[in-house]
Amino acid sequence: MIYLMAMHNRLTLSACCILLTLLGKSQTNTEDTVPVRNSKQIVHVIKADIFRRIKQDSAKDLNLLIGNVELRQNNTIFYCDSAIQDNELNQFEAFGNIHINDADSVHTYSQYLKYIGDTRIANLKTKVKMTDGKGVLTTDNLEYDLNAKLGTYLEGGKVVNGKSVLTSKEGYYYADTKDVYFQKNVRLVDPEYTLASDTLLYNVNSEVASFVAATTIRDAKSRIRTRSGFYDLKKGKANFTNRPIMDDSTQFVIADKINYDKISGEGIADGNVIYTDTSEGVAMLSGAAVFNNQKKDILSYKHPVMILKQDNDSLFIAADSFYSAYHNRDTSKKADRSDTMRYFNAFHHVRIFSDSLQGKCDSLFYSTIDSVFRFFLDPIIWTKGSQVSGDTLLLTTKNKKVDQFFANENAFSINEAQVGLYNQLKGNTMSGTFIDGTLDFIRAKGNGESLYYLQDQDSAYVGMDYTQADAIIFKFIQKELKRVTWINSATGTTYPFKKIPADKRELRNFRWLDAIRPKNAGELFAY
C-alpha cells in the first residue's frame, strides 16, 4: 500500500514537472511552437524504397527518402528519385525525375524541387516542364504557386501549343484560366507567321493573343504593327486598336482600329484611314474603309479623298465613296498585264483638284491600263482660265500629267478673256490637248459654234465674232486665245465692241461655273 502511494506520488510529480516544463517553454519562446496544421496542409510520405530518420541537431530530425519516392499533400502527389523532408517546417527538397501531379490537371516535371507545404510554393530547377495536356511550358527555373495555380519564370522560357512556339525572358502561366502573360523579348513562331512584342497575353485554350505593347506580326507576304488589340490565332480573326499599321510589298493601311480576317484577307478599318498603293502611287484618306489584302481591293467611305501622286502636281479627288481593285487577269492573252493594273470608281459628288486642273461630276472611273479619267453626269473641268463641259468627259494622262480631253454630246468650252468677257466654243463633240497642264488647242465638231472677242495690236478689245461651222479650232498661247480656224460651211457675224447686242454675248446653254470650282485641296478635306 505504501509502495503504491509512493508510485502514485512519483507519477503525479513527473506529470506536473512535464506540464510545467511545456508551459515554461510556451511562455518563454512562443516563436518555436510548431504551427497548428490540418491534415490537408501536411505533406505525407506515401512510399519510398529506403526511409531513414536523420538527426540534424538536438531538436530536429529529417526524413531521408530514397528510391521511387511518393509524397502527397491533399490532392497533389509528388514523385521523385530521392528527397529530404523536414516535418517540423512542413517542407522538403526533391532530386531526380521529379513529377508534380496537381489534381490530375497540371503536371510539372524537373530535376530539382524545393517545396514549402504551408504556402504551397514549389521552386523547380533544371529541365523544368509544365503541361495542362494542351500547352507545354519549358524553362530552367520555375516558381509554381499551387494555391493560385500560377507558374512564374524570370530567366527565359518557352510555351509550345500545337504548332505555335512562344518564347520570352519572363512569363506567368495561370493554370486555371490557361492564360500566359509574356514579358521581355516575346516571340511567337507559327508555320504561317511570326510575332514579336515586349508584352503579350496568350490563352492556350482559345489561342487568342492580346496585345498591350508595341507588337509586330509577319507572314510570308505582309506585316502588321499594333500596340493593342487581340488576334485569334485559331480562327484567324483579329481586332487591332491604337493606330495599327498593315503593309505588304505594295499596300499600306493605317487606321484608328482595324478588324481583320486572315483567312479571307478582309479587313474593316475605322477612323482616320490611310490606304496607299505604292506600286501605283495612289493614296486614299477616309473615315472608314473595307479592304481585302489578298484581292487588293478597297471601298473607302465617310468623306474619302484619293491622291494620285505626280511629280510636281498631285491630283486630289473627293467623293462620297471610292472603290478600287485590280483588273481580272485574262489568261487567254499571253502578255496580259491586267492583274497588275488598278482601276478606281468614285461615286457621287466628285470633286477634283490639282494646281493645273479642277473638276466636278457625279461619278468617275479611272484605270491605270489606259490612264483615262471618265467623268459622268454633269461633268465639268477647269484648267487655267478655261472651262469644259459635256454629257460625258474623258481626260487622258501621260506620265501622270493631263494630256488630252474628249467631250461627248453638248460639248461646251469657255475661256475667260477678262472679267465679264468669255470666249466660247460648242459642238456635238469636242477634243483638246494640253501642254504642261495648259490648254494648247480645242477642236469642236458637229454643229460647231464659236463666239470670241477680237483684239487689236495693243490687246484692246475691238469687237466680237460669232461663227457657225462644221468644225472649229481654238488655238491658245499662254492661256490666251490667239487663233480661230473654221472648217466647212462657215457663216457668221462680227460686231464692233460697243455695238454687241446683249443677247449675243453668250451662246445657248452658256454657264460659267467658276463659283463651284474647287479652289484648293483643303476644300476637299473640309467636311
Query: What is the helix fraction of residues, given as a range?
Result: under 10%
Instruction: Estimate the global geometry from the Cα principal axes.
Output: rod-shaped
What gap, in angstroms, lies between the N and C termini? 117 Å
Q: What oligomeric state do these chains adopt?
A: single chain
In DSSP terms (H or I, runs of 4 or more residues), the helix count works out at 2
Write the CATH architecture name of the domain at 303-527. Answer: Sandwich
**CATH third-tier fold name of the domain at 303-527:** lipopolysaccharide transport protein A fold
> Can you tell me the CATH superfamily of the domain at 303-527?
Lipopolysaccharide (LPS) transport protein A like domain
Assess the beta-strand content as a share of residues: over 45%
Rg: 43 Å
Detail the poorly predicted runs.
Answer: 1-33, 334-338
Report the strand count.
Answer: 40
Please tell me the overall pLDDT: 87
Biggest beta sheet attributes: 40 strands, antiparallel
| SSE class | mainly beta
Task: Supply the CATH class of the domain at 303-527.
Answer: Mainly Beta
